[in-house]
Amino acid sequence: MPNLHATPLLKFTTRIFNAVGVPESDASIVAKNLIGANLRGHDSHGMLRIPQYVDFLRKGDYQVGVELAIDSESPGVVVTDGQWGLGQVQAHRLLDLVIPRARELGLAAGTGRNFGHIGRLGEYAERAADEGLILIATVNNNGAGQRVAPPGGTEGRIGTNPLCASVPTNSDPVVLDFGTSVAAEGKVRVHYFQDKKPVPEGWLLDAQGHPTTDPSVLYEPPLGTILPMGGTQAYKGFGLGLVLDMLSGGLTGGKSSHSGAAAAKGNNVVFLVLDPEKFAGLEALIGQSSGLASYVRATPRAKGVAAILLPGDPERMTLEYRSVEGIPIDAGLWSKLVELAASLEVKIPEIPQPDPYRDPSKVPNEEDV
Predict the structure, then answer these.
(1) Which residues have CB under 8 Å from 7's CB, separation 6+?
(2) Residue 277 near residue 177, CB atoms below 8 Å
(3) What is the pLDDT of residues 242-281, one digit of tens each?
(4) What is the rounded distance in angstroms from the CA atom of residue 95 to the CA atom of residue 126?
(5) CB neighbours of 128 closer than 8 A, spacing ≥ 6?
(6) What does the DSSP 8-state code read for residue 66?
(7) Which sign, positive or negative, has the C-alpha torsion 110, 112, 116, 120?
(8) Closest CA to 120 of 47, 37, 179
(9) By Cβ atoms counted within 10 A, which residue in 208, 250, 298, 305 is the most buried?
(10) Closest to 92 measured CA to CA, from 152, 148, 32, 149
């Protein structure tokens, strides 16, 4: 299937959410997050999520038009309840509450429970960095999505709980955004929906704890698990995910992983924002972050390595490429989106004719992002 450009996909995605009752402004926020993820190579957090979100909206699991409720607040901390509103909308509202507090005090934190899936965390980190701020963020699945087993275990006990952090520099910010498992669950989901395309070796274990490349072990009984990151020292990845799960449940008033958890539908969110001006000053931070970034980029390269990349670089490279060449959409996913759009009487974008001279070897791969 040929690539599709971002502008018609943004309109298409917005109209789908409009058609299930989401107001224009909220639908636009969600669409920009999803298409933005596709543009940056994170297809696991892009249009793949549209049928999932629509299903949650239709069933009433996600609520339309709800406010971000404030449970408690102080000069440096705000605790909120998303009331199962659309996650991207509520997450940006949470940042709206935290950033002014950080400007005033130097650092501030905001937490939220019962948010719909908030999408790619890097979006919020990029927003903070654009304003000269540092963001450290994590989420969990409110106790659900237990797909990571402790080293030596054969049953999942925690989620793929991500860690995200951004640091501004004098050019592009460093944006660290990764799950604490060897691969994000969403990347396995992409393979599963692509006719169960095998995942790379070293990602998954089956229900008996044996290595497998079959993505269905995460979705069809008997269930397997995703390995923690860390390779032979996987206890590091599991330990980090464990702590983030505890914080995401315990600081939000939501839940950490537990026995009998309901199916996953959204996130508990922890945002910590720091204003460098209230520390040694933004100039001092930019000087050090930019100097270190340049020093690392200048590392002598091994044979065949074109460039030393920092966190955030692969996403920017893919954004540049896909902004021109378009976004590749799996044919199976596109078929589902077309069927969904038809049921909602939403106009489907025209499919461009493929370019016979296009070099597929230059198309970035999600596993490289």
Answers:
(1) none
(2) no
(3) 999 999 999 999 999 999 999 999 999 999 999 999 999 9
(4) 12
(5) 95, 99, 134, 135, 166, 273
(6) -
(7) positive
(8) 37
(9) 250
(10) 32
